[in-house]
Specification:
This protein has about 170 residues and is mainly α. The chain has helices at about 15-40, 45-50, 55-75, 75-85, 110-130, 135-155, 160. It is flat and about 80 Å long.
Amino acid sequence: QRLGVLHVGQRIEEQAEFEKIYKNAWADNANACAKQYAGTGALKTDYTRTGKRTQWGLIMDGWNSLIRYYKNNFSDGFRQDAIDLFLGNYSVDEVEPASPLHVKKDWKFLALPIIMVVAFSMCIICLLMAGDTWTETLAYVLFWGSASFGTFAIILYNGKDFVDAPKLVQKEK
């Protein structure tokens, strides 16, 4: 009222259109910040926009959380490298001829996840499309289940190789 935005006697709570615009702008800003920081939209924007938690909002939050987990562990070490480069928090060994940012990937980085997904899919298919006898179905499920479990165990054993960690070395402080 002092600034002349509201008339005398008007209350901010009565301004439904302004509240809607303000909440949407706030949620859009949260999405922009979250995409820069985490690689996905912000969580709980359904609540920010409407004041209510929705089923669709819960599903989207679960999806965004899965995407964040994948990106944070397997595909965005470059984000931290970019931040370190921008802030000057890195040290490059001038004697080393190769770039610290380029790391050659081994065959297992592509082959093992594909084998695991195919084996797990075959295990599910064998469960859904039963064979002529239960022993045949059991044999297929055990084979594909052990193949998917085995490749998963190999991936876990070599877990640090699969993680996309930042490659620039921090400066000594």
